[in-house]
Amino acid sequence: MSVNTIKCECGHINHEGTVLCEACGKPIQGNQHLDGNDDQKVLEMRYDGSARRSKTYKRTFIDKTWAFFSSVKVGVWLIVITLIFSALGTIYPQEPFKNSPLPASQFYETEYGITGKIFYQLGFHNMYDSWWYIILVALIGISLVICSLDRYIPLRRALKNQKIKRHPTFVKRQRVVSSADKLSDENYQMIKERLEKKRYKIKEEDGHLFAEKNRFSRWGPYVNHIGLIIILVAAILRMFHVMHVDDYVWVREGETRVIPGTGHEYYVKNEKFSFDFFDPNEDERFREALEKNEAPIPKDFQTDAVIYKVVGDPVIGEEPELEEIKRGEIRVNEPLSFNGYSLYQAGNQMESEYDSISFKVNGENDQEIGEFKFETDEAPYQVELDDGTVVRVDDYYPQLEFTDNGPSSFSKFPRNPGIIFSVLKEGEEEGERFFYLAEEVIGLSEENTFSMSVSDIDKRSASGLTVKKDNTLPFFLVGAIIFMIGVVQGLYWYHRRIWIHPAENEYLVGSHTNKNWFGMKKELDEIFEGTEFNEFKDQSELK
Amino acid sequence: MDFYEISSSLLSISFFIYLIAVVFFGAILGKKRDERQKSKLTTIGIILTIIGFIAQVGSFIFRWMEAGHIPVSNMFEFIYFFSMCLIFAFLLIHFIYRYSIMGIVALPIAIVLIGYGSVFPTEVTPLVDSLQSNWLYIHVTTVALAQAILSISFVAGLLYLIVKVNQEVRSKETSYLELIMYFVVSVITFVILSFSFGAADYEAVFNLPENEDYTDISYTLPALIGPTDSELATTGHFYTGIEAPSFMNGPEAARKFNTLIWSLLSGLVLYGLLRLLTRKRLGAYLQNKFGKVNPDIVDDIIYRAVAIGFPLFTLGGLIFAAIWAQQAWGRFWGWDPKEVWALITWLFYAAFLHLRLTRGWHGKKSAWLAVIGFGIIMFNLIVINLVISGLHSYA
Ligand code: HEM
């Protein structure tokens, strides 16, 4: 790429494609169309007429790509397209939220009919991690980088090179201008003082005055775009598992389980799981609302957890040796963290399993002969009562169901235990059989001397914990902070410049602000009030 | 009187003060620009607005004391907090620009919102476990404030359109403007209807013999559309006998659909009446009343409101929201519908800011964009909460 240069009459050497001389601001002939100044009285000042690559070179493929991505119009289109697709994705629930055992291929059609089917077939049910959504976001990222480079570099050069003395055309063709036939020294000093009071930095040369403030706010957009880029990079990093662990584990009360996603290095024990609902009778304030609500409103869920680390290298299949490293409570909004991992209270199965069932055994004449406790985790086994009677567990079905082949167990979790006992007199081999199911005992033999009944039931709850490790969080946080700094820098401060230009037989004032002309005009009125200058004129007022 | 009653009374008081303030602001319509700015009426209007605002803040504080947590956790509370923020944002802009004519648009919108919010159950509700976090306070309040400030750009935009859309001939622009008017009128009739039938304790109950989860569903407005496969259980109530089409999911959908039809129909009636009375498009009628405004200032307010609101929205709606979600669920972003709509709002206003960089997007085009932006905010607040439910769903 050859770099041609343009020499201005003031002597400054400008890059090819410059619209306004960087030093004196004189419009450079032949380039005015680049910023659309031809048919406009007011000069386009957004980039101070600096030479932007996208406007200058349009020959090669690379030039064209560059020009394409640095166009704000293209950027806005990308944003709008992303916005529209994002919205379309919320018409029906995304796959992870569908909350149904049906597979996606059936769910959307069954639930929402033909529109649901279309939604599914277009792939909208997995909108936000579909490849084309990711490409859209990536294009925004590319556009961000290119447009920022395209403008930041020349703009910084132009603002650095600006001279105090400007060409009269430059001053006259600013948006808000004024003039005076003469200007007394006294008033000139007063203007200077007022400018200083308003924190302008003042430079003077041969009677020319240049006042400027808040140039840093011009860098706001570039800073915020850097923040966005960091966030996008963090999002890409997050796709890799080293950076991000996301798993789930159910732990019953009293149980110790390996924490998934930690490479068998950590175990968690659920010592106790407690929960609490709002009680309409306890809290008068909420009574009306609570009574209206059919489902109880949860107040608190809590797992008392112990975290263990495996001593030495974990060997799969071998009972590991565990060492306690942390102990604490896990609640919604209050995760428990250890070595970069966090456990979140996410789900609960309340009193969904039987922990133990106690039975009473009566002998002849309904005389009580003993009591025993059946532990669901230790079955099957047998117990001997005080008088030598033996109760033997013949069959145990943790989650009882009846199939064509008789009773069987749906799972190994004691959610609905079924137990077949034999009660044997001392020394005998054959006894009377009893069947426990649904919290009742039924005798199976025809004539019973013994009888059994349930005397106590102990249930337990399981706690669902999300396992998280996210090394990308700091990146997101830093990106967000930089974005906020940039946005505030660019939107809450304004870059303002005022030129006082002694021309042949008049004084000219031109002013520029990158935004908030309302405030600028107010400030100008305050600064020039009571001087010879005419009322300020806005040369591009809305009609 | 307990805190709850004090809070309710203060809310009613502020509601009426706002109504009176509108009258004062309205009285300056038709006057010349200079007269308006100096008019005593404006000063009284502003003072009334401030008093109303103080009453509303008081109502908010008492409700807070009653509930023991910040009252922003259900539909009623959120809308009502939002309207408070809207008044605050209006006052803020007023003290920057001293452009009182904004009040004639801002206050009625706040009033309509308060009315709309009051249709929802007003009892204090306890906080479900996932909402018991300080981040709730921070997140919800900044979002509401940011959205209120962004809405000011809609207020200015609407003002701009009322004054600037050419009403001499019918055009797309006049039609869209009428559509906005019609929406506002429909919300008003909806509120009036709800309160009238509410005051009369109207309740028609439908039985749903074939539904397993719901036994019955009660209507508080006469049933134009009943639930699918239902029977009217109460006697003496009006029912057209038309059932909701079966694709509408869940029996609640039919009730909401019925309410929607009521609002749109009654809105149509009131809108038609107003058209007959004024013998003009409402836009044309208002344009006549409003007279001239300074388009540069209004355009500047449209932009400035976004410039102030956008960073605040980013902070509250995205950053604080993400921090809270990380703490509560271990994932700072989950593509929940509410989150997606926050992203959409954010993207929209980012697009708005970028369009402002291009020539030709000031003035009327910006005003239309501001209207769309408000549409997105309202969609997020109302439709997403009531229809597309997600983790954040209130009602
Ligand atoms: C979601 C993505 C984006 C966000 C949130 C964003 C945000 C912003 C903000 C807040 C400003 C300041 C606006 C103002 O001062 O009024 C800005 C300026 C700007 N943005 Fe973006 N932007 C995004 C994407 C893009 C893209 C894709 C482009 C590419 C064309 C782009 C190009 C620009 C330009 C050229 C400026 C003006 C710079 C200046 O005034 O010197 N932005 N952006």
From TrEMBL, chain B:
Compartments (UniProt record): Membrane
InterPro entries xrefs: Cyt_c_assembly, Cyt_c_biogenesis_CcsA, Cyt_c_biogenesis_CcsA/CcmC
Molecular functions per Gene Ontology: heme binding
BP GO annotations: cytochrome complex assembly
GO cellular component, one term: plasma membrane
Bilayer disposition of the protein: Multi-pass membrane protein
Keywords associated with the record: Cytochrome c-type biogenesis, Membrane, Transmembrane, Transmembrane helix
Domain (Cytochrome c assembly protein): residue spans on this chain: 73-181, 265-392
TM region positions: 6-29, 41-62, 78-97, 104-124, 136-163, 175-200, 259-277, 301-325, 340-357, 369-388
Pfam families: Cytochrom_C_asm
Domain of life (superkingdom): Bacteria
Predominant cellular place of this UniProt entry's protein: membrane
Name of the protein in question: C-type cytochrome biogenesis protein CcsB
Gene symbol of the encoding locus: ccsB
